Amino acid sequence: MAAANPIIQQLREQALALFQIGVNAANPKAGLDKAFQDNPLSPLQDGRYLVIALGKAANAMATTCLGALPQDTPFEALVITNYENATKIEGATTFAAGHPVPDENGLAAGKAIIDLLATTTDKDKVIVLISGGGSALVPAPIDGISLEDKIAVNKLLLSNGYPIQDMNLIRQTLSQLKGGGLSQLARPAQVQSYILSDVVGDDLSVIASGPTNPPLGTAKDALALFEQKGLIDQLPANVRSALENKLGDQTKDLSNTTNLLIGSNRISLDAIFDAVPLGWRGLILDDLLEGDVEDIAPHLLAEISAAPRGEKTAYIWGGETTVTLKGDGLGGRNQELALRLAALAEKEPQQDGHWVFLSGGTDGRDGPTDSAGGLVDAQTLARIREQGADPEALLANNDSYKALALSGDHIMMSATGTNVADIQICLVDKT
């Protein structure tokens, strides 16, 4: 369903083009190519390269890395990614697994990593290629915790508005691989990790729950995060017991590991800024956008409402928001943020000019849906009502997916093969 106003339609097309530029800037191949050009991989004497790629960008990262390996050094490779991105890679064993909810294939992938690391010697070198999504894709629960327990905890985290830092602290305490566990298991081999960031602030211990970085906290800290939201009684009994007994806590020696950041959300925002059309004023207002979308939407609208008259302004944000579920509808944080902003804007309409607002996930998927996010304008809610639905009721039920389907405001794209969190763009034309 297209916007009827030709100016709005043009703005929508421009916003989508800018978003695609941001996604393209997160191409993991470019980042890895530069890293290998700066520091080429050397042949190993009597050793192997063990390549482990995990996350939504695992395919591109693994393909690039395998092409950079010295031809006379043997290697083994494991690639773990989400179902939408999975393809066969020559020379590698590939696992397609569940995201954002872990599944049996991810459990098998985690076991494969642990089994491979058990064969290392001091002559081997482990190359770890990390991108967003790796945490859910590779569940490797500590003793006493089942996959079902991990799934239950994951659903609890996703539905209660935990920021990614808190979610991954909790995941680390229940995993053999997260929070530096992979590097620990890789001993006595050296580990070189290349990381594509999908988290605000690029904390390497948060990305994919930090398999090659120190843990964010302890089991005691994880328990406190559940206590703060009154969720202790909703934890599986095995998980609660593990946290209360501080199981999984240990000091990890990560002196065998070097980490390198190869891409981030800020790089994508800068690319969008550089591509703002001639005659427009571009502003990156925030590259650390966090918080519940219910709180974020009015903040963004206030910034948009201040757009100067007589100008064309492109506002740009990046980060990772959260949603606290109060209903049983379908959606994701980007879809709900877009819908909430459109609802607020209808109550406080712009006095002049035209605007569109886009919020999208750089991985091409928003939550458990086939939508990357939403692209709304001043007529979004009117289009929903024309289809016989109540947008406010849909929003109250967290049913942003249905609402944006009715208004024709979904961003539909295939999985991008990368992930550097979310991008928001608002184009305001007051000329």
UniProtKB/TrEMBL annotation:
<dbReference type="GO" id="GO:0008887">
    <property type="term" value="F:glycerate kinase activity"/>
</dbReference>
<feature type="domain" description="MOFRL-associated">
    <location>
        <begin position="15"/>
        <end position="244"/>
    </location>
</feature>
<dbReference type="GO" id="GO:0005737">
    <property type="term" value="C:cytoplasm"/>
</dbReference>
<dbReference type="Pfam" id="PF13660">
    <property type="entry name" value="DUF4147"/>
</dbReference>
<dbReference type="InterPro" id="IPR039760">
    <property type="entry name" value="MOFRL_protein"/>
</dbReference>
<dbReference type="InterPro" id="IPR037035">
    <property type="entry name" value="GK-like_C_sf"/>
</dbReference>
<keyword id="KW-0418">Kinase</keyword>
<dbReference type="Pfam" id="PF05161">
    <property type="entry name" value="MOFRL"/>
</dbReference>
<feature type="domain" description="MOFRL">
    <location>
        <begin position="314"/>
        <end position="422"/>
    </location>
</feature>
<dbReference type="InterPro" id="IPR007835">
    <property type="entry name" value="MOFRL"/>
</dbReference>
<dbReference type="InterPro" id="IPR038614">
    <property type="entry name" value="GK_N_sf"/>
</dbReference>
<keyword id="KW-0808">Transferase</keyword>
<protein>
    <submittedName>
        <fullName>Glycerate kinase</fullName>
    </submittedName>
</protein>
<dbReference type="InterPro" id="IPR025286">
    <property type="entry name" value="MOFRL_assoc_dom"/>
</dbReference>
